[in-house]
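**User:**
Make up any protein.

**Assistant:**
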Amino acid sequence: MLVDDAPANLTTLSEALEAEDYLVLVAVDGESAIEQLNHITPDIVLLDAIMPGMDGFETCRRMKINERTLDIPVIFMTALSDTGDVVRGFGEGAVDYVIKPVRHAEVLARITAHMRNARRSTQARQALDASGQILIALDRLGRISWLTARAGACLGFDFGDPRSTQPTPPELPSTLRQWAMAYLRAPDAGTPPPLTVGKRDRQLAVYLSPSPSGETLLRLQEQCTRCRADDLTRSFGLTAREAEVLIWLACGKTNRDIGTILGISPRTVNKHLDHIFPKLGVETRTAAAARALAHHEGGKPAATTCIGLICDTEP
């Protein structure tokens, strides 16, 4: 997408890009650019910094607070040579800038490089989402740079509306922010111990670690407090890993969920269940979950309602 209030600039740059087989969208001001971005997501945006009405800086800022357009790379086109304006552009989220009059060969080279980097970043993020990782990256000011889909769902469950599965806005909840900021303000003091947050029987252990990129990573690990692993190990002769699998089974997790949480494959989870069932004297997942929960309640039978493989249990 090209955004420029000068028709001559749009014409010449569009022709140069189309000659290289790019499909080019154009907008003559910030308002119309934002409107188009509500319906289509371009691979990259070349944005004029100085325009009447909504200028390029404000247009870029609005793109970066919208989840749909957050990751689109923005290159400023500007006749400004003042360092402050260049710094402002980067501060609003731009990845690069070119000075007018634009040299077409230079713009094409920059577009190619930034689109390649953006695609690699997107592929890496998609791989993390597919693996079920619960990760949040923070910048030096404690703001969320990016987070995986599962992290957004966990934050929404534990800090927002439990019915919401949508990623949270790019702002860290106060509990986590205060904990993380203590490290960001004094990193030489070392990484803090894990923070445990959550509700009732569902908790998250949050680990913090610096990243070579300058970001700080928060890794969230789900925990279940319905049963104690050491108690299950002692009472039923389970191995430590079998006890962990049984705990998550009692929390209503599928094999895939359990594998993601424990860092093993669903097939390995199933092999553990093959050993767990005989030790508990049961034949089904439902019976194993009920047995573990009844044991946790001191032997009192548990009333269990099952839908598919997801069990909701109340003592």
Observations:
- The first strand starts at residue 2 and ends at 3.
- The chain has three domains: 2-126, 132-224, 229-314.
